Amino acid sequence: MIDMKISRLGECECWSPLKLNNTLEASADFGFVPETAMVMHDSEVNSGVKSSGLLFEKAGPREKIFFKPAETRAAIVTCGGLCPGLNTVIRSVFLCLYHIYGVRTVYGIRYGYQGLNPEIGEPPILLNPDMVDRIHQEGGTILGSSRGNQPISAMVDFLVKNNINILFTVGGDGTQRGAHLIAKEAEKRRLSISVVGIPKTIDNDIMYIKKTFGFATAVDRAHSVIRCAHTEAKSYSNGIGLVKLMGRDSGFIAAFATIVSQDVNFTIIPEIPLVLEGEKGLLETLMRRILNRKHAVIAVAEGAGQNLFAGRKQKDVSGNVLHNDIGTFLKERIAEYFRERKIPINLKYIDPSYIIRSVPTNSEDCFLCDQYARNATHAAMAGKTDMIVGYWNDFMHLPMTHATHQRQQVDPNGFLWHGVISSTGQPSRWK
Amino acid sequence: MIDMKISRLGECECWSPLKLNNTLEASADFGFVPETAMVMHDSEVNSGVKSSGLLFEKAGPREKIFFKPAETRAAIVTCGGLCPGLNTVIRSVFLCLYHIYGVRTVYGIRYGYQGLNPEIGEPPILLNPDMVDRIHQEGGTILGSSRGNQPISAMVDFLVKNNINILFTVGGDGTQRGAHLIAKEAEKRRLSISVVGIPKTIDNDIMYIKKTFGFATAVDRAHSVIRCAHTEAKSYSNGIGLVKLMGRDSGFIAAFATIVSQDVNFTIIPEIPLVLEGEKGLLETLMRRILNRKHAVIAVAEGAGQNLFAGRKQKDVSGNVLHNDIGTFLKERIAEYFRERKIPINLKYIDPSYIIRSVPTNSEDCFLCDQYARNATHAAMAGKTDMIVGYWNDFMHLPMTHATHQRQQVDPNGFLWHGVISSTGQPSRWK
Amino acid sequence: MIDMKISRLGECECWSPLKLNNTLEASADFGFVPETAMVMHDSEVNSGVKSSGLLFEKAGPREKIFFKPAETRAAIVTCGGLCPGLNTVIRSVFLCLYHIYGVRTVYGIRYGYQGLNPEIGEPPILLNPDMVDRIHQEGGTILGSSRGNQPISAMVDFLVKNNINILFTVGGDGTQRGAHLIAKEAEKRRLSISVVGIPKTIDNDIMYIKKTFGFATAVDRAHSVIRCAHTEAKSYSNGIGLVKLMGRDSGFIAAFATIVSQDVNFTIIPEIPLVLEGEKGLLETLMRRILNRKHAVIAVAEGAGQNLFAGRKQKDVSGNVLHNDIGTFLKERIAEYFRERKIPINLKYIDPSYIIRSVPTNSEDCFLCDQYARNATHAAMAGKTDMIVGYWNDFMHLPMTHATHQRQQVDPNGFLWHGVISSTGQPSRWK
Amino acid sequence: MIDMKISRLGECECWSPLKLNNTLEASADFGFVPETAMVMHDSEVNSGVKSSGLLFEKAGPREKIFFKPAETRAAIVTCGGLCPGLNTVIRSVFLCLYHIYGVRTVYGIRYGYQGLNPEIGEPPILLNPDMVDRIHQEGGTILGSSRGNQPISAMVDFLVKNNINILFTVGGDGTQRGAHLIAKEAEKRRLSISVVGIPKTIDNDIMYIKKTFGFATAVDRAHSVIRCAHTEAKSYSNGIGLVKLMGRDSGFIAAFATIVSQDVNFTIIPEIPLVLEGEKGLLETLMRRILNRKHAVIAVAEGAGQNLFAGRKQKDVSGNVLHNDIGTFLKERIAEYFRERKIPINLKYIDPSYIIRSVPTNSEDCFLCDQYARNATHAAMAGKTDMIVGYWNDFMHLPMTHATHQRQQVDPNGFLWHGVISSTGQPSRWK
Q: Domain containing B28: what range?
C-alpha cells in the first residue's frame, strides 16, 4: 500500500471548538476523523487490473487542531477562468471558519494572485457574513480572478505582512503549482503558514479526483447547447450541428453531455486521435450519415484533434498549452469536404464557452462546493499544508505535487467511452 | 380613416361548422366577428402626434365561410431561420383545421419553399393528430425549413397538382414576398387558392405588428446570455462583456433585453448611428466607465453600426442585406483602443444566435402562436388571401404588401429607448 | 367620449430635470407626454359592440413637474400576498426617483401598511442604490408585506411626521381602497401629498387594466404545474390530475395556462357557473373522458364553483370574500362519484399557490414592472394623486376609485374562452 | 471478505455480440468485465470503524452471455409512485437490447404489475425505436404504473405464455420483493427466466446503494421549493415557511436540499427523534429564532416525527407503512404554540410531492439512468437473476433479498448530518 503523506505544520495541541460547541453533546456526535484514517484508491478486486495500492489521507474535522481560532487570520484567493461554484466555495470556507471555528479575520484576495502582489494588485477585502449571504446563488466570483502567477517571494511577503496564516487557493493546475511554491517558500522561511488548495477545473481532469465542482453544471449546460444544435440540425436538410465544448486534455464534458443528451452522433475527444480522411475517418463516416439520415450532431472537445495540427505549441500565462482551434478548423474542413462533393449542407457552429463557465451551480455542484470548502477548512485548521482537497470514494487529502503532475483522462476502454459509442453509434476509434 | 382592404376569393356562402358545434349552443356563444369589424391603429388622442387614420380588418372566426371543410385541402410551409414557436404554429393551425373546421387533409411541406418545388424538394407529409401531439414543447420545425424562394410558377403548379386550396406561409419578409407572388399568380390563373401568411420574425420588426411570436422567448434568452456576460465582466479587472444579439434592422431584442436584465451599460442598435471616436463616442465613454467602475457590459444588435463600414452591401438568398459583422469588429476595435492606451482589459465576446433561435417558446409566445395560428385559419377558411395575420391592439388582417414594404423600428424618442437609457445611463445619441 | 379625470395637487411649475439631463440634448429627445394626451379604451369599430367612449390620461414623463426633487421625500409600501415583481417595482421606482429625478430620500415602509402605523409597525428603512442593486432577481419583497389596512388617520400622521410627500402603494384592491382614503384624508387636511398606486394582482382582474405585473410569471409557473399533473395523470390507469390555480373572481390564470399547456381537459373558472350533476355536468363528462381516454387533467380557479356552496360568505382582513375551497371539494366529490360507480381512479391533487407567488419574474414581467414603476414615478413627480398606473393599449392613469369598484373577468363569448374550449374540447357552458 | 453471490440461470456459452460488433476491433476495446471481478463495500481503513468485509459482484458487459439474442424476448415493467428517470431507464434498456445485443422483441408492460395479470391488466405493447426516441426528455412513464403486487403465479403464467425470458422490474422495495418471488417461482418451475431489478426510490434509501436515479432531480426541485418557502418567510413579519419533503424512512432529500439551499433553519428527519416541547425542543427553539430573526424555514421529511404519534400503523398496497401526516400536524401545532403565546406568525405550508416526482431528470440522473439500464441489460443477458443493479463505488449486482431487508439511513454522526447542522445552526439532536 502506498500512503500519500500530507505535510503538516506541527503537532495539533488545541482542542477543536467543535468538541465544545453547545449544539453538540460529545465528540462522538461530531464524527471527528482520526489522523490515521485513509481512503483506498482501488475498490475493485479480481478484475485483472493491477491494483495501484494507493491510500489517501481521509478528509474531515480533527479532534485536535493546529491553529488557535482566535489568532488565526485566513485568506481566500480565486484564480483562472470562471467555473460554476466559486462563490459557493468562498461562502462555505468563510462560514466554516467564522461560525464553526470562530475565526474572525478572513480576507478575500482581489483578482487572483494579482491581489497577493501589492505592486499590481488591489488590497484585499475583509469578509463578513452579510457579504457572502446570497452569493452561492450567483455565478462568477465576488473576489474577482486573473490568470497567471505572481512572484512567489512577493506573495509570501504579503502573507507575512498581513499576518495571514492560512491561504486557500481555489484554482486549477497552474494555480496549485503556484500554491505549492508558496508553501515551499513559507517552509523555507520557517513560517507556520498553511496553504490548502481547492481544485477548480471545469474539465474534471485532475488526477486522483473523481469529481470536481462545476463539472456537473457544465455538463447540464453543454446538454442544453447540444439540444439547440440538434434542433438546428434536424430543422434543415443535411443539417449539421457542430458544438465545441470545454476539455483541453480530457473529453469528460463532451462524453457526459453526449450520454445525457442522447442526441450526439459524433463525439470527438482528445483521448482518441482524430482521423479525418479515409473510409473510417470522420468525414466519410459523417457523409454516410448525412446521406442516410439527413442530419448530424457533432460534439468536439476543444483539445481534440491536435494531432492534425503541425508545428510547435505555445503556452498561456498560466502555463497551459494553447491549442489550435479545432472547432473552426472542423467547421471549415467539413464545409469544404461537402462542397467538393457538391452535397449542400446547413452547418451551424456553436462555441458556448462563456455561457457555460459563468452560470450559478446546479444542486449537485452546490453540495460538492460546500463539502470541498468545509473539508479544506478542517484540513487547514489542522495545520495541513501543500495539499489540495480531493474526492475519490470519499473526501481526502492529496499532496499538491501529485495532483498537478498528470491529467485524468477518459479511458477509451472504460464504461464512459462505451456509454458514448452506445449512444452515438460512432466507431470506437478513428482509422 | 384609411381602411386596409383584404382580398377575398369570393362570397362566403357556407355556414361555419362552429355554429353547429355541439359544444356551442348558439352563434352568440362563439363571438363570431362580423366582416365589417375593424381595429384602429391609433389609440392615442391629443398628444400632438398626427393620427395615421389606419383601420385594420379584425381577425377572428366568421359566421359564414368560403371553403367547404370536406373539400378543403390545406398545406403549411415554414421558411427561413429558426424562431421559437414554429412547431406551436404548425400544431394549432392543424388542430384548428382538423377539430374545429373538420378539414381532414392537411399537408406539411418539407424544408420551406423547396418542398413546393418538386424538382428539388421532398414530397409533403400528411399530418395527423398524433404527429403534432407534443411538438409545441420542442424548438425548431418538424417540417424543416430552408432559405430563399423557388420559381413561383412551379410552386403554383404544385398546389394545383395536389388540389391544395389553402396555403399557410410561416416566414419573414422574403417568405411573405414570395407568398404574395403565389397569391398573385393564383389570381391570374383564376384559382380559388387562399394564401395566408403568419409572420415570423424573431426581431419583431414587421410594420404594423406590435408583437410577433418568438420575440418574447428571444428576449428571455438574450437576458440569460447578458447575465453571463455581466458575470464574466464583473469577475475580472477591467472586464468587458460584449454580446451580439439578433436585430438586422431593428434593435428591439437588444432594447428589451437591456431593460429586463438591468445589467447592460451600452446598448447599440441600428436605429441610432454609432460613433466610435471622440469625447462622446463609444470608445471614450467606455474607457471612462472602465476606469471608474472596472467593468462594463455591451449589447449590440447585429445590424447596428453599419454606418461604420464603407463599400457595397450584398444580399442573401432571401433578399436580406448581408451585414458586416459588427460584433467581431467591435471586439477588435475595443481591444485595440485599450491596447494603445496600455490599459489591460479582459474582453469576452459572446454570439449566442443559434442557442436563442432553436429553443422552445416560453408561455407568452406559446399563447401568441396559438392565437396567430387560429386567426390565420379562420381567415383562410373565410377565403381571405394575399394577407398576413397581425396583432395591433387586437388580432387583425394585413395585406401582404403592406407588411413587407417597410420595417418597424425602435423610436429613439419613445418610451422604449428611454427605458434603455434610464437603465444603462448611456448617452441617448452617439456624437 | 368620457374623460377620466385624474386629481392633481397643483400647477406644475418646476422644469423636469430630465430636460436638463446631460445625456439628453433637448426635450424633444425625451418625448415628454403633454398633459392633454389621452389613450382610448376602445380600438374596435363597426363590430356591433357599443363603444364605451372611455378616455384615459396617458402616462409618461411631464416637461414640468409639481415636486422639486431636492425637497421631495418619497416612500414605497408593498401590501398583501406575494406577487412576482414586487422587488423589481421597488427597485425601478427608487432608481427613477434617485437617478432620473435626483430625489435623495426614499423610504421603504416595512411589512405593508403596518409600517405606516407606528403603534404596531417597524420603522422604515432609507433606501440606497446598493440595497436595491440585485433585488430584481429575487422573488418576494425586501420591504416585507402584510394584509389589511391600518387606521387612515394614523397613517397620514406618519407621513406628515416624516415629511413624506409621495407615497407609492403597491397592492391590490384592498390596498388601493386604503390608498384612496389616505389621499382623501390628505386632501381634507390640505396636505400636498401625492398617493400613487401600482396595481398588484396576480389574477390580472383589475378593471380597465389589460395586464398587471406578475401575471405572465404566474401563467408560466401554472403551466409547469399542469405539466406535472398531466404526467401524473397519464402515468396511471384512469389518472386524474386536479390543479387548483389562483383566480378569486376571474379565471385568467387558469384560462391562459390552459392554452399555453394544451394539456388541460377541463378548465373551471368563476365566470362560468359550475354544474356537477347531469349529462352535461362536469362529473358525467369527466367519466366519459376517463372511460374513453383513461386520463384527464382539470384546472380549477380557486374562486370557481362558489355557486355550489350554500350559506354566507366571510371576508378576510383585506376585505376579500373568503371562498370555500373548491379544490378539496372537487377532489372529494370526484373520488366519491367514481367510487359509487366502482371505477378505480388515481386522482392527484396539486395546490401550488405559494410556489407560484414567491418566484422571481420572467422577462415579460420584469419589463412590465420597470414600466409600471417608472410611469408611477413620473405621475407622482407631476403631482398626480389618488390614482393608479394602468396599461390599456398604452400606459395610462386611472382614478383609484374606478380601478377598485369592479373586477375584470374572462368574457365567456370572447377569444380567450374560445381558445380554452378549442384546446380542451370541453363544453362552453356547464348544464 | 463476504462475497454476495448472485444467482445465474446457467453457463454462458454464447459469445457476446459486442465482441463481433463492427465498430469494435477486439474484445479489449470493449472492456468486458470478468465474472470474478468484485467491488469492495469499504474503501476506508484505519478509521476505527469495523470493516464490513462486503464484496459485490461487479456489473458490466460479459464476454460470453447466457441468452441467444435472436431467441430472447424481454419485458420491462415500471411500478409504484413516479420518480424522475423512468422513461430514460425504459429507453436505455430497450436501446441496449435492440442495438447492442440485437434483441428484437421487447415488451412494455402496462400499468405496473397489473399488466402481468391478464385478469385485470391491459395487454403489453411491443416497443420500437421510434416509440422511445424522445421519451428521456419527459417525466412519468410511458408504460404506466400502479401500486401493489399481483398473484405471483398469474404473473409467471403470463411470462410463460408470452415466451418472455427476461423481465426488468423497475420499482422500489415492494416491487423488488415481488420480483424476488417471481424469480423464485420461475426457479421452482425450472424456467430459464431472468428477473433483474432496477431500483427506484426517490428517497435514496436502498441498503448498499449510494445513489439511485431520480434522487438528484428530487433534491434540485426540493431546493426550488425551499427557496419559495424562504421568500414567503422573509417577506412577512414572523414568517415561517414549512416544507414537507419526501423521505419515508430516510431524510436524504431533506438533508441534501438543506445543504444545497443554505436557507433552511430546521431540518427534521426520521433518523433523529423529534422532540417538540421543552427548552431544547423544536417549538421553543423555533420561537427563539422567530423572536430573534423574524423568520424561519423548516424542512420536514414525511416520515419524521412518527414517534409523536401514538397507536398502530397501517400499510399501503405495496406494503409500505402508512405514516401519520407530520406536515399538517406540525403546521397546526406550531400555529397553536404561537397563538397561545400571542405571537402573531405568518405560516406557509407547502407539500410539493407530485411536482417533484413527475418532472424529467436533470443531467446527473439522466446519466445515472442510462448506466443503470445498460448494466441491468448486461446482467440479464448474462443470465443473472433474482438481483438488482446497484452503485457503490462502482456499478454492481446485489441479491434482491439483500436490497430489500433494511433501509439506508442518514448517519447522525456522519458528514451529511454535520453538513446540515453546519448550515442550519440547529441542535444536532432534539431533547
A: 2-212+361-392
